[in-house]
Prior knowledge:
By secondary structure, this protein is mainly β. The chain has helices at residues 24-28, 84-94, and strands spanning 10-15, 33-34, 46-55, 60-70, 72-78, 99-106, 119-132, 142-149, 154-157. The longest helix has 11 residues, at 84-94.
Amino acid sequence: MTQTPNHIGDTIWYALALPATNNKEGFEALTWVEAVGHQTLPQFGITHAMIEVKDLKTGFTAASKGAAQGVDTTMAFRGIAGSTAQAALQETADDNDGEISLKVVKGSGPKNAPATGDPVKYAQGILHSNQPNKGDDTTHEGFSVNFRQNDFTIEDVHPTVA
């Protein structure tokens, strides 16, 4: 029986800049920091507005694809005291601009570190809505931030690791 892959071991990385070009080369030119303590990965993707096309002859309303927009998704983190990486995420979400690039890597290296050729997804957009995690018997103290994607997702393989 083949097991269904899960997301355990996936890591989130961020760059506090946007790529010059929305392609692998543009993203690889950025400086990346691991977003430690993540509990929920961002969901990358694009949705489209729907344009209703009414037809009086048939009485049927069909749909035509309209403008695309990036998904707005939430990432949750357990708090890690003194983490500068987490502080930077929260500050970016609170910032007026909030511009950020994200990558998610399914790492195969030691402790799930990215290795050459591992699957990677890149996205750019806006980080916003920094909120403390809801307190209950199923959560850690920490925070969540939202990410609104502003261009298409780039899927490739991780570059050579030095």
